[in-house]
Amino acid sequence: QRCCICRLWGASVTCRGRRCPRVFHFPCGSERGCVSQFFGEFKSFCWKHRPVQCVRAVQQDQTLCLICQEAVAGQPCYDTLVCPACASAWFHRRCIQGQALRSARHHFRCPLCQDVATFQEEMFRLGIKIPDG
């Protein structure tokens, strides 16, 4: 199939959004803000149908990423994620993904409140890959 992003043939990732016809290459999707979930049915979603956070989190002035200490967006979005347990820990997607890859499932938790279960479940849902070992 033809990729809806680069228009080249060989796309194999299909958006699982309701009635969405988009098909893309995994790397193209990652660059465009598509989300692939690395658990259960391994669903993927295009930029229009990707899961979003429903966390009520309020920033005080400008909030920094807990990992790199650089500014994050003013509200949860594709590039800025928030811990669902404490709603006080903010991260860049690339930073928390790196943390997940280094920590693996046994040690991956919110760096601020130390929550494991709620935090991991939400990160999985938002497309953060957390290795088993």
UniProtKB/TrEMBL annotation:
Signal peptide: none annotated. Keywords: Metal-binding, Zinc, Zinc-finger. Residues 65-114 form the RING-type domain. The keyword Ion transport does not apply. This is G2/M phase-specific E3 ubiquitin-protein ligase. InterPro entries: EPHD, PHD-type_Zinc_Finger, Zinc_finger_PHD-type_CS, Znf_FYVE_PHD, Znf_PHD, Znf_RING, Znf_RING/FYVE/PHD. One of its GO terms (molecular function) is zinc ion binding. It comes from the Eukaryota. SMART domains: PHD (SM00249). Gene3D superfamilies: Zinc/RING finger domain, C3HC4 (zinc finger). One of its GO terms (cellular component) is nucleus. It holds the Pfam family zf-HC5HC2H. Residues 1-50 form the PHD-type domain.
